[in-house]
Design a protein that fits this description.
heterodimer, A: alpha+beta, 3-stranded antiparallel β-sheet, B: about 60 residues, Alpha-Beta Plaits, two-stranded antiparallel sheet, globular
């Protein structure tokens, strides 16, 4: 037997390639090597697309420590930053500074320009709108032919309509915008396609910001336009914020809606609980548990150390890349008893589905309301909802920055 | 129990309001935390501890 299988997991020579494949037949579980890493060596190394060997953090406690450590940076222009792919590396030098690529104090300034529409109260005040859109989409689904694609019918349009409404993107442009935004979410995207789609989205939003500066409305782009007029930010910075918000705000929720539907249909006992429970709090704990269990952000958040850091018995040196693989921490047995059990009544889940630290998801409260409404409505209104295909015939987004399903044929 | 918040650290994730809306609020202008009750009574303590544990910016300090 080769000794390479038992070498020190922190060595660079035999660092396994990341991303890794999931186990066939286990579409909801992180790849087995990451599961083992989370349990036995939560700070180890992997090899990525450009041949570099950054650290990968799979343990829940270790992620929590590093994600709140000021020596861990998101500045993707620093040499050695472990980019997602070549396209992202190319785009990084052109992206204006924003919440996504700056550290405090710059980050704090940008973050506070984005947070007002996403407070707990503002978002919960929109619950009736989310319910109305959800009911409308379900009406249309039920009036149409069977089988139908749940991704196209509900999962994608709901969050797209919500984030576009908050930002102020005209409804006529939603589909074109969503199509462009999905390009960069694929890990095998060509550099040219990545750059072109980025430019399209950026130019589109920059034009919209200029239009809102001339004629303000009650939406987020008008707020950003006012900041441009006041000289606080540039049009480019406003557009970069808009692109990031849209990308983060629609496809992630869409994946959670569709993938959770598959998971619940595969766990009929849990689905029955969700559908039949009288407990109004159950939809909320169910959402948290599905966020934990599904761990759709599976390509690892990218960071770089700006100083030497001792963590998990290892030393991460200044200038070394760090991959925070959120999905495996959500199955860390040290943080969650029976981590592979989907238990919609699981209490107090401190999951990392939205990340942790200063860059934790800006739109998380919106996502929660969307998912609570959809999970709480879909299976009650369509109690006979079922897959119009088999689990092994579903095409999962193994190549996506966010995991999910491309299409979901359902019937009722 | 005594509670303190650091508005400079706050990133407006809203986790504290979700955990205990009687003790925590968010500013309308940017979502930054506002402390409504620095000495919450015993009935509020669970929610306050959950808020402190969930805060991604470690901006909530609890004593007692």
């Amino acid at each position: 037997m080769s000794s390479s299988q038992v070498q020190d997991p922190t060595g660079t020579a035999d660092a396994p390639f990341f991303p890794m494949s999931r186990k066939p037949g286990c579409p909801f579980d992180p790849p087995p090597p990451l599961r083992e890493a989370a349990a036995s060596h939560p700070v180890s190394r992997v090899t990525i697309w450009n041949g570099s060997t950054p650290w990968i953090i799979t343990g829940h406690a270790e992620q929590r420590a590093l994600l709140s450590d000021p020596r861990v940076s998101v500045n993707d222009r620093l040499p050695g930053f472990p980019h997602w792919h070549a396209g992202m590396e190319q785009v990084s030098t052109r992206r204006a500074p924003s919440v996504f690529n700056t550290d405090p104090p710059e980050h704090t300034r940008f973050r506070r320009m984005m947070t007002a529409p996403f407070t707990f109260k503002r978002v919960n005040a929109m619950r009736a709108v989310v319910q109305e859109i959800t009911d409308d989409l379900i009406d249309r689904l039920l009036a149409g032919p069977r089988p139908a694609d749940l991704v196209e019918a509900i999962a994608l349009p709901l969050p797209t309509r919500m984030i576009c409404a908050i930002m102020g993107v005209p409804q006529a442009d939603h589909a074109a915008f969503a199509a462009q935004a999905s390009v960069g979410m694929k890990r095998d995207v060509t550099v040219q396609a990545q750059v072109e789609s980025f430019r399209w989205q950026h130019d589109y939003l920059a034009d919209l910001v200029r239009a809102r500066a001339a004629e303000p409305r009650d939406d987020m782009l008008s707020d950003l336009a006012q900041r441009v007029t006041d000289g606080e930010i540039t049009v480019e910075e406003a557009a970069a914020m808009g692109v990031g918000l849209f990308v983060a705000g629609h496809e992630t929720s869409a994946n959670m809606i569709a993938l959770a539907t598959v998971a619940l249909l595969e766990h009929p006992g849990q689905l029955a609980l969700l559908r039949e429970s009288d407990d109004p709090g159950l939809a909320a704990t169910a959402v948290e548990e599905l966020l934990r269990y599904l761990g759709i952000v599976h390509m690892a958040q990218r960071r770089i150390a700006t100083d030497d850091i001792e963590i998990g018995g290892q030393t991460i040196r200044a200038g070394e890349g760090i991959l925070i693989e959120l999905a495996s921490a959500n199955r860390d047995p040290r943080a969650f008893p029976d981590p592979d059990v989907l238990d919609l009544r699981r209490p107090a889940p401190a999951h990392h589905a939205f990340g942790f630290g200063l860059h934790q998801c800006v739109g998380q409260q919106l996502a929660r309301v969307e998912l609570q409404v959809v999970y709480g409505t879909l299976f009650r209104r369509i109690p006979t909802l079922s897959l119009a295909t088999t689990l092994d015939a579903i095409e999962f987004k193994h190549d996506g920055i966010a995991y999910g399903v491309y299409h979901l044929p359902v019937t009722w | 129990m005594r509670v303190a918040v650091d508005q400079n650290k706050c990133i407006a994730a809203g986790q504290c309001v979700a955990a205990n809306p009687d003790v925590f609020d968010q500013r309308d202008s940017d979502g930054v935390v506002v402390l409504l009750e620095a000495a919450p009574d015993a009935g509020q303590e669970d929610g306050v501890r959950r808020a402190a544990a969930a805060c991604p910016a470690l901006a909530i300090q609890v004593q007692g």
